[in-house]
């Protein structure tokens, strides 16, 4: 066979093979794109179902009752019903253990704790007489956010210590807490919150009472080397030994049981 | 070779994402939601969108990255593994997109580690999709012994 004819045949065979390979590749790509399309539909359906189901964390303040535009008034009343309230402390003043909590009225983590685990703390530890709860306010959000209303809200709260309206005011404050980056705790807002818990005209000025409570809280915060808020500690009765503990109900329950054995 | 390189890039990106999600998980548990890097982290990590069915989204992120890394270590010639990567990274990408929308538009907060994770998920989705459409490297093009998933194939 002449070599020219052979090379022509070879070239034709090569071209056919390349064409077939290209067709196979195109068919393979088409198949892959089809599978990919199906997979993407599955992905969109899965994500869509999860988002539509609304399974994200719900804000307890959103579901709270509203009284004259203030959230959580009824919930606060229920929380503290029948519980002794004296100054910054709720519960039996002679309980074997004191739970100390350091909090900031503008701190979103404190809100989450107050409207979450704290309800169980009051129910399981304070109401049962196993512990009392001392809640002290510090101001750590304002300096970082460049705001000043956290300090104003704290002074209003501290000026309510003497009338024992401090605790209900603080609790209602958390139900109505705004964005930590904004100046939401205005005089009008704070007055509205105070009125909702039966307090009279608010006082947002510095007084001997606010100076003392702020100094006490700051001394505790620095002395106990707290890293943020909320920070919880347990102290056996008759001692001055504060033990740091996580703020969840499980940790607090076991810490209270341990501390109770050391009470004097 | 191209697929092999894309796979290794995916591996590195997934490790970076795992680092970001791991840090967010650490801050969530160790500092009770206080991030310490910027105010935005606190806002984002305590927001409504920080937990899914009671599980912090950062934990779900860690689990997702570990699953992606495991899939990247599995034999890559299996179509199901490549398709699984597309599905996993696709879900991660769409969730990240939604969470970024919530962080930047709804909360107006900047969370650097959340953003890092979202960028990683986007890259992983693009890489996984490209790898799936391309298909595996042709055996003849893989020099003997370089693809540890497959027996060496050499040209005659």
UniProtKB/TrEMBL annotation, chain A:
InterPro entries: Thioredoxin-like_fold, Thioredoxin-like_sf. Gene3D superfamilies: Glutaredoxin. Residues 224-246 are annotated as: Disordered. The chain crosses the membrane at residues 33-56. Keywords: Coiled coil, Membrane, Transmembrane, Transmembrane helix. Residues 5-32 form a coiled coil. It comes from the Bacteria. Residues 86-199 form the Thioredoxin-like fold domain. The keyword Coiled coil applies. This is Thioredoxin domain-containing protein. It comes from Patulibacter brassicae.
Automatic annotation (TrEMBL), chain B:
It holds the Pfam family VKOR. Its main location: membrane. Residues 3-132 form the Vitamin K epoxide reductase domain. Keywords: Disulfide bond, Membrane, Oxidoreductase, Quinone, Redox-active center, Transmembrane, Transmembrane helix. InterPro entries: VKOR (IPR012932), VKOR/LTO1 (IPR044698), VKOR_sf (IPR038354). It is found in: Membrane. CDD domains: VKOR_1. It comes from the Bacteria. It is a multi-pass membrane protein. The keyword Oxidoreductase applies. The chain crosses the membrane at residues 7-26, 53-73, 80-101, 107-127. PANTHER family: VITAMIN K EPOXIDE REDUCTASE DOMAIN-CONTAINING PROTEIN, VKC DOMAIN-CONTAINING PROTEIN. Belongs to the VKOR family. This is Vitamin K epoxide reductase family protein.
């Amino acid at each position: 066979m002449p070599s020219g004819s052979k090379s022509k045949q070879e070239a034709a065979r090569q071209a056919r093979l390349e064409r077939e390979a290209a067709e196979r590749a195109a068919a393979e790509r088409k198949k892959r794109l089809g599978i990919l399309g199906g997979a993407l539909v599955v992905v969109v359906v899965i994500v869509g179902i999860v988002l539509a189901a609304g399974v994200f964390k719900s804000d307890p303040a959103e579901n709270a009752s509203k009284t004259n535009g203030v959230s959580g008034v009824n919930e606060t009343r229920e929380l503290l019903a029948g519980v002794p309230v004296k100054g910054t402390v709720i519960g039996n003043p002679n309980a074997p253990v004191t739970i100390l909590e350091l909090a900031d009225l503008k701190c979103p983590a404190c809100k989450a704790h107050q409207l979450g685990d704290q309800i169980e703390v009051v129910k399981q530890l304070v109401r049962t007489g196993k512990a009392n709860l001392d809640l002290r306010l510090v101001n750590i959000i304002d300096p970082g956010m460049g705001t000043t209303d956290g300090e104003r809200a704290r002074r209003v709260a501290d000026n309510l210590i003497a009338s024992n309206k401090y605790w209900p005011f603080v609790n209602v404050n958390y139900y109505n807490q705004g964005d930590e980056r904004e100046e939401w705790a205005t005089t009008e807002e704070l007055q509205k919150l105070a009125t909702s818990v039966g307090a009279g005209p608010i006082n947002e000025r510095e007084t001997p009472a606010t100076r003392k409570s702020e100094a006490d809280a700051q001394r505790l915060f620095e002395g106990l080397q707290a890293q943020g808020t909320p920070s919880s500690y347990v102290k056996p009765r008759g001692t001055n030994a504060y033990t740091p503990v996580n703020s969840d109900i499980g940790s607090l329950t076991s810490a209270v049981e341990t501390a109770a054995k050391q009470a004097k | 070779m191209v697929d092999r390189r894309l796979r290794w890039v995916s591996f590195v990106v997934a490790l970076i994402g795992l680092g970001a999600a791991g840090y967010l998980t650490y801050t969530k548990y160790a500092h009770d939601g206080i991030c310490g890097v910027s105010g935005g982290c606190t806002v984002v990590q305590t927001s409504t969108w920080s937990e899914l069915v009671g599980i912090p989204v950062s934990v779900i992120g860690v689990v997702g990255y570990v699953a992606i890394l495991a899939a990247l270590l599995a034999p890559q010639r299996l179509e199901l593994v490549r398709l699984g990567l597309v599905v996993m990274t696709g879900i991660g990408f769409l969730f990240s997109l939604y969470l970024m929308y919530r962080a930047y538009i709804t909360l107006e907060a900047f969370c650097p580690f959340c953003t890092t994770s979202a960028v990683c998920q986007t890259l992983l989705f693009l890489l996984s999709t490209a790898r799936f459409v391309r298909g595996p490297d042709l055996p003849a093009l893989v020099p003997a012994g370089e693809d540890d998933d497959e027996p060496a194939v050499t040209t005659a």
